[in-house]
Design brief:
Elements (H helix, E strand, L loop, with lengths): L1 E6 L9 E6 L4 H19 L13 H10 L3 E4 L4 E5 L5 E6 L10 E9 L2 E9 L41 H4 L20
Antiparallel strand pairs: 1-2, 2-7, 3-4, 4-5, 5-6, 6-7
Length: 190
């Protein structure tokens, strides 16, 4: 199962670009991409710019945050660059030489988990503005909090468990409670 987000310059023409998310892509990533899509769409409606189709972001600008956060980088002669997270549980591949492929063929591939058997994948077509590939994977985002039931069983081995704290209860001032007065004794005489 896949989620496909596509942009069309003309409603009746083929897609200009598309992003394909697999069914296990984290909802936070889907939310970030679609939030920015909506923001840019609304911004475009009130300006003469076309952010959804014209990218001002170069591919090199996508690489910089990854390299700054210690991601490993390899370049192959087939026109691909691969970036791996320091813990090797995420990566991004960019097919920068696109001479033999169609516009909608994946140019950027992003994954979470082991490179050979990822837990989730996202693909960006060649004509997708580079800014979208910056959302995935987030190199320096804070950890995501989830309950165990919200984590797919097959990916639970990647989970780090943080200790739960109850600081809210500890910080409340204690209010002294008065003891109730003793009940009066009733003596019955017969």
């Amino acid at each position: 199962m896949q989620w496909i987000t596509a942009a069309h310059r003309d409603p009746f023409s083929p897609a200009t670009w598309q992003i394909t998310f697999d069914a296990t892509t984290p909802v936070e990533l889907l939310g970030d991409v679609h939030s920015e899509l909506l923001d840019l769409y609304l911004e475009d409606r009130h300006s003469d710019k076309d952010h959804l189709f014209d990218s001002q972001t170069s591919a090199q600008e996508v690489y910089i945050p990854l390299l700054a956060h210690g991601w490993r980088h390899t370049i192959k002669t087939d026109g691909t660059q691969t970036f791996l997270a320091p813990d090797a549980l995420g990566g991004m591949q960019h097919q920068y030489d696109r001479t033999l492929s169609s516009d909608l063929a994946p140019s950027w591939r992003v994954w979470g988990g082991q490179p050979n058997d990822p837990d989730w994948r996202v693909q960006f077509s060649q004509t997708t503005p580079s800014r979208w590939s910056q959302h995935s994977p987030p190199p320096c985002s804070p950890p995501v909090e989830r309950t165990v039931k919200d984590i797919p069983f097959l990916t639970r081995h990647h989970v780090s468990i943080a200790a739960a704290t109850t600081t809210a209860k500890q910080n409340k001032p204690s209010i002294p409670v008065a003891t109730p007065p003793p009940r009066p004794t009733i003596s019955r005489i017969r």
